[in-house]
Amino acid sequence: MAKDLIKKEPDSLPAFLNDIPDDVAGLGNSTSSQDNTLPFLAIIQKGSPQINRQEPEYIKGAEVGMMLNTATGELFSGEEGLEVIPCGFHKAFVEWVPRAAGDGYIGTHSFGPETVKKLGAVKDDRGGLVLPNGNQLVETAYTFVLVKGTPLVIGATSTALKPMRDWMSLRNSFYLRGKPAPAFARVYGVRTVYQKNEKGDWYSWRIEDRGWVTDSELYNRALEFARSVK
How many CA atoms lie within 13 A of 110 on its CB side? Predict the structure, then answer.
C-alpha cells in the first residue's frame, strides 16, 4: 500500500533523540551529489555481475529479472514489483567506451540534436550514435522516484525507453481541477517482464497505475523530493 512507502524512524531510537533541536538536522553530512552514491533501481540481466559468483558485486540470492538498489544491494522481486511515486524526469546523452574497447562511463551531455552536431556523432549500422573517438553516445532517460520512502533513479536506454514513454503519456493523462496533475500525486506499480527478439532476450519495465496518493505525509515527502530534483 502507499502508506508503506513512508520513511520510518528506527525502532530503537533513544528517547533523548526525540528532543534534539531542528537546527541540527543533517548537521555533519553532505547532500552534494559529488559526495553521495546516486542510487539506481536497476534490473538484473543475464550479464549482470550480481549473479556471477566470481565478481565482487555478486549478491547471494540475486536472480535474472529481479530489481536492485545499486547503492545498498537490496533486492526486490521483479514479478511482485514495487510501488513507486515519480518525482522528476531528465533526459541526456551518456558517453560510453564500447564494451569491446574496455567498457566504461565517460560523461553526460545535454540531450538534443545540437549536441549530436556539436560532438560530431554519426549513426552506426545498428542505428546507434558513435563519436569520432569511437565512443558511444547513448540516449538515456532518468526517472526520479520514491520507493519505500527512499529516493531512487530508474535509468532507461534502448528498448527500455518505450516503457518510459508510455509511462509519461499515462502520467500526463491525469488532471486535478482542470489542470495537469503533478507526477507525484499518483502511485504506480513497477515490475519486470521478459522480452526477446532475434537479437536476444532480456527483462524490461512494466508500469501500472495504482491510483492517487492518499497519505498527506507521503505526498509532502514526494513534493519535497520533486522540488530538489527540479
Answer: 6
Pairing of β 41-43 and β 67-69: antiparallel
> What would the grid cell of residue 133 be?
573517438
In this model, does residue 186 exceed pLDDT 90? Answer: yes
Say what the pTM is: 0.82
- Positive or negative, the CA dihedral 214, 170, 68, 104 is negative
The enclosing H or E element of 166 equals helix 161-171
Question: How far is Cα 56 from Cα 78, in angstroms, rounded to an integer?
Answer: 23
- Residue pair 163/156 in contact by the 8 Å Cβ criterion: yes
Closest-CA residue to 170 (of 143, 208, 206): 208
Q: Closest Cα to residue 193, out of 201, 182, 184, 204? A: 204
Residue-wise pLDDT tens digits, 123-159: 988 888 999 999 999 999 999 999 988 899 999 999 9
Q: What distance lies between CA 206 and its chain's CA centroid?
A: 13
In angstroms, the CA 128 to CA 140 distance is 12
